[in-house]
Amino acid sequence: MRTTIYVDGFNFYYRALKGTPHKWLNLDTLFHLLLRPPHAITAIKYFTARVSARPNDPGQPVRQDMYLRALRTVPTISIIFGTFLTNTAVVVTNDSDLCEPIRIVRDELGLPVGILYPDKSLSRQLQRYASFVRPIRQGVLAQSQFPDELTDNVGTFHKPTSW
To answer: I need a labelling partner for 117 at 20 to 30 A (CA). Which of 6, 18, 22, 53 fits?
Structure first.
C-alpha cells in the first residue's frame, strides 16, 4: 500500500522530542521502522513554521535550520511551511483539532487514515476516527537518528552540540 506520511512538526517536537536526546531524528528511518509492509512509504510531508530566537535560547533558529537541512538530505521528505494539507495518509499527531479532517477522509471519502502518536496515550477523540494507530516510542526514536555528520550540496555540517 503506497503511503504518504504527514507530520505535524511542532506537535511532534513538543510531545516526543523536546527534552530528549533524540532531536537529530531521521524521519524516513523512523517511519520505515514503524510501518512495515504492506506500507510502502512514498513521501513524508513535514509541516512546520520558522522558530524565532528567544532571550533564553537565541540558538533556536540555527538549530532548526540545521535540522531542516538534514531533512532535505532525504529524498522522500518535503518540508512545508505554514500550511497543512489533509489527504489519505498516516498522520503524526496527538492533536484532536485534526479529528474532523481525518473523519472526512475516512467517512466521506472512504479512505484509510492511520495515526502515529508521539505520546504515552492517544487522544480518545482521534482514536475514534483512525483506521489504525501506533505509538512512537523512545526506542524507535533512538534508532532513527541521523549520523552526527552529514553532507549536502553546501558542504558538511553537524548535529547541534546542545542536542
So the answer is: 53
Cis amide linkage into residue 38, ω under 30° from 0:
yes
* Domain limits for position 27: 8-87+114-146
3: Cβ contacts below 8 Å, ≥ 6 apart: 35, 39, 40, 41, 42, 89, 90
Tell me: the pLDDT tens digits for 8-39?
A: 898 899 889 999 999 999 999 999 999 999 99
Q: Domain for residue 28, yes or no?
A: yes
Query: Count of domains in the chain?
Result: 1
- pLDDT (0 to 100) of residue 87: 45
The answer as to whether 136 is a domain residue is yes
d(CA 35, CA 66): 26
pLDDT over 60 at 149, yes or no: yes
- Which secondary structure element, helix H or strand E, spans residue 138, and what is its range? helix 138-143
| Domain-located, residue 67 | yes
CA distances from 21 to 17, 96, 97, 135 (A): 8, 27, 28, 18
Q: What is the structure's pLDDT at 76?
A: 96
Q: What local confidence, expressed as pLDDT, does residue 2 receive?
A: 93
